[in-house]
Amino acid sequence: MRQDTDSRAQARENEDPEEAVRPIPVSAALVVIAMVVFGLLYIPLSGPLGDTSLGDQRTRADLAGSAGGASAAVDGKAIFAAQCAACHQANGKGLPGVFPPLDGSEWVQGAPKVLANILLHGITGQITVAGNKFEGAMPSFAQLSDAELAGVASFVRSNWSNKAEPIGADLFAQERKASASRSTPFEGEAALKAIAP
User: Would you say residue 6 has pLDDT above 50?
Assistant: First the structure.
């Protein structure tokens, strides 16, 4: 009787699965072969440079740009976009309560010497801009060249509602040399007022 029960239990069980050889479908194999053949034919038939009438038509000389000497023009707007716009915003309005505005700022339109020192050394602590107090830190941009600093300073002094005259690179060179021993940012607006002419 027990043997009967075991054979009935075995009859109800499914067979154990086993792997069988299942070839790739013919359609999938044909697609892969067609792609390989196309790639092998495309490379030698496309030519090394392709059709020169396509593309942006710039020459190697155009891509090399200028020599970049002292006489090369500096794009203050591009430097502002890369270095300053993240905090002061592209419109120069800053972020209320966080980053001060450059548009209409008395520090931007004021004495060029003060703005040069802010860019060269940075500032920490409290500063009042356009009647609003800001507490924070602005890093030094001394890693930029004098021409780049002059370009960005001139850009912010003459854009938006600002109508101040541009600043030359010679002022930045002079201030960099005069304060070569300074390694810390200015502490608040009182320190900036002390250097104002």
Answer: yes
> How confident is residue 53, by pLDDT bands cut at 50, 70 and 90?
low
Can you spell out the DSSP letters for 59-87? -HHHHH-----TTS---HHHHHHHHTHHH
CATH of residue 179's domain is 1.10.760.10
Task: Judge residue 58's burial from the number of C-beta atoms within 10 Å of its C-beta, 0-12 exposed, 13-18 middle, 19 or more buried.
Answer: exposed
Q: Is residue 183 part of a domain?
A: yes
Cβ atoms 164, 157 nearer than 8 A: yes
Residue from 157, 66, 65 nearest 109 by CA: 157
Other Cβ atoms closer than 10 A to 146:
20
- Tokens 């520090």, residue located: 107
CA distance 12 to 10: 5
Domain holding 166, by residue range, is 95-195
* Domain-located, residue 7: no
Amino acid 71: pLDDT: 42
Query: Which of 58, 34, 51, 76 minimizes the C-alpha distance to 162?
Result: 76
- Which pair of structure tokens corresponds to residue 113? 């010497």
Q: How many domains does the chain have?
A: 1
Backbone angles phi, psi at 89, to 5 degrees: 70, 155
Rg (alpha carbons) of the chain, rounded to whole number: 35
Residue 137 has pLDDT above 60, yes or no: yes
Q: Does the pLDDT value for residue 81 go beyond 60? A: yes
